[in-house]
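Continuing the series of single-chain predictions for the mutant panel. This is the parent chain; the variants come on the following pages.
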Amino acid sequence: MQTAISKLTKKYQATVPEPVRAKLKLKAGDSIAFIIDNNSIRLRKATPVDLEFISALIPALSEWESQNDDEAYNDL
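Parent structure:
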């Protein structure tokens, strides 16, 4: 087992360490998927199905993009 570490920037961005990029065969511009399972997160290269799913999902979420929603849920 190998450990790779990266530091978050002020914008919450991180560089994917070289051993991870090599293992997942990542290139600049590739998309990655985060699989959230209780207290662990897995990272993998996103597949065309992942990208299709998120593209279909985004329009459905736009109904919550209003000033009223921002004000109503801002303190949650």
